[in-house]
Structure formats: C-alpha cells, structure tokens
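Appendix B. Chain record.
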Amino acid sequence: MYLPDCNFQLFIFMNISIPSETDLLNAVIVHTPGREVSLVNPGIKEELLFDDIIFESDAREEHLDMLDIFRAAMPEDGKIIEILDLVLECFTLENVRAEFVEMMIRELPHRNIQTIEKKLIALEAEELMQFAVEGTFNGSFSLQPAPNLLFTRDLAAVVGNNIIASKAAKEARVREFLLMRTVINHHPLFSHIKKNAITIGGHQSIEGGDVLVASDKIVLIGMSERTSFSGLMSVAEKLLRQGAEHVLAVDIPKQRSSMHLDTIFTFADVDECVAFPPAIMEQTNNVVDLFSDGDSVKARQCSSLKETLEELTGHSFTFIKCGGEERINQYREQWTDGANLFALAPGVVVGYGRNTQTFKTMAEHGYRHMTQHEFIEEYKGRGIDPSQKNKIAISFEGHELCRGRGGARCMTLPVSRIPSDSQ
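Structure tokens predicted for this chain:
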C-alpha cells in the first residue's frame, strides 16, 4: 500500500532543516492518493474542497510518475517518505492512538466520535489509520473521507530548523492536520526538531501552502483564505524569536482560486520566481515586513513583494509570468497550478505539463524544458549537481491530480534540503 523507500532506522537521525525553497531536495513527505479519493461523493465534493471527482488509478499513476522525477534528481541517499508509514509507526503505541482519538473528539465535537472512543483506541494501528483517512468504521459509523491528504504541503512547514504545525481552516481537513501533529509529536524523524515546534490554538489557522522560505533569515507568509491574520501574527512572532529576521506578510485575494500564497507565487531559483501577475506583480502596498525590535515585533508597509525581496536580500529578482503575456492564459494556467512549481534544486523545478505558456515563458528566461521521461532518462542514477547552475523546467502529466486544485508544491512537504554552501 505504501512506498518502499522508507527505512525508518535510516532517517531517524536525518537533519530536518529547510534553509530555502530551492536548496537541493534531500527528504520529502508525500501521500500517493488511495481509496479515500474514490469515496468522494460528487454531491459533497465542494464541501470536501474538491472541484471535481478524481479517478483514483490514473491519479496514483501520475503521482508515482512525479515521484520518479524526484528520485532522479535527489542524492542517492535522499528519502521519499509516505506520511501514512509515519502514522502507522506512531499508532503502534496505544497511548498515541488514545491521544489521536481524543484530539478528534475535541476538534470535531459535533461528529459524536466519543460514542465509539474505546472501540477506536482498541483498533489495530492500520485499522485506526484507515478510519482516520477513509472515515468508515465497521459499517456502523462514518465520517466523510479525507481526500486532501494528497496535499501534504499544508499539514506543516519546516522553516530553517523550526517546524510549524499547521492548523486547518476547514473542517474537511482537520483529521489530516491531527495526523501530522501526531507524527511531529511522536515519530523519531522529528525527535530532534519537535522542541522547536510552533503551534497555534483557538480559532486561529495557518496552512503550509502559505509559508515560503526565501532564505534562512526571510520567510513569506500569505494572509489568505486559509491563513488568518491572528494565525499569521502568532507564527511570525515565534519565528522571529527562533532565528528568522524578517517575516513578510503578503496579503492575497481571499478566494478559492488563490487559496494559498503558493498557488500564485513560488520560487524557481534563489532570485527567480514564477508569479500570477494580477495578484502579485500588479499589486502594491500588499506586503508588511515584520521584524524584531528588542522584545517587540515591529511592522512596516512595503511597496511590493519584488522590491521588498530585493531590498532585504541585496540582489535583483526576476518574476516570471505564470501563463505568459496574454491575460486569458495567465488566468487559465493559474487555475491549473501554473504558478505552483516545486523546486528540486536551485533552478530545477517541476510542474504540470498542461501549463504550456508558463513553460514557454520559462524557456524564454533560459530554462531548458524537459518532459518527465527526458529528465529521468538523463538524470536517473546521477542526480542533480547544484554546482552546475542548472536551469531546468520539468513537466509531467497531471490531468487527474489537477482536479484536486493543487500542483507539485501542494503535493510535497519537504523536510530536508542540503544548503548550497555545504555541497
């Protein structure tokens, strides 16, 4: 059922750290879609945050193709980790199962989970995990499935040597976020970093798709449909106490099509980004720079995201237009995740092949466009060498995956990248 890459003893002592969005990928948490996507009833798909139903077998094949790209690019000892393998290891302990069930009861009080609390705790690890993801129990009790587990990005965010434990904005995703909280608290993978875990409570929310690591000192957080102002401020204050020097709060449209910052803006290289022009490049006074001043957090309004990044880093940035120059293509390709690229190394990114105008525009900026098959054939067995200053934009087929409204970055939770200065 799960990925064969995982050998838990090998990554217990892995260095969990993300110094930037574009450093060489070394370990990433994913979830290849399973039966939970086939349990989505078309009548409630919007409630489950899907615009369409997904054909499971094709979606799985597309996702596994994406992972093959990762394997070709990563170091020989790089790890692709299935989140449910981590959950399964945690659930072997009865006290962890009990804690997870208690969290579900607390976070979903109107679902009457307390009526089967003892039965859930008594389940075998895999049975409880199946209930958490698929929502069914012995045919006598059911919750809705959790098909968004596919988008592991939102469940947490590693920032430098800290980890943000996300808090869901929508009930449909609560169980996924509780699974990730369980993994952070109890799996050996995070044993050395959980002391730096950043959590929020109450009605606050923050999701990993709104958190981008520009550098070891600069973090971007989108104030979006899914990340509340109070959640953003709470996390920003803690990040500034734990090593960050600047947190850029980026105000973005509060709508389905731009649910997270990474749906309209991602890093392709240290100083190159792909952006949806109407929501990023054409906006002014939508960025607030948060920084520490002694024991307090100060704020200053900034003219634009590009100018702020250039000011704080001291070098020029290039913003590449998602969809190219034509307005209709910008909107169409942003809708199909053209701006939601995932960096495998500096200047090496992967995204859906259907966004042809975005790839064409990247080619005009010096990127070599390669299909998934071309890239794998050339790089399998040797990986990406960041010192070669590659500029590669890799496309893969994602016609079923795309129905879930999330691209390559949405489907990945990187937990380890190798800093360029250590390679």
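Further analysis of this model is presented in Appendix C.
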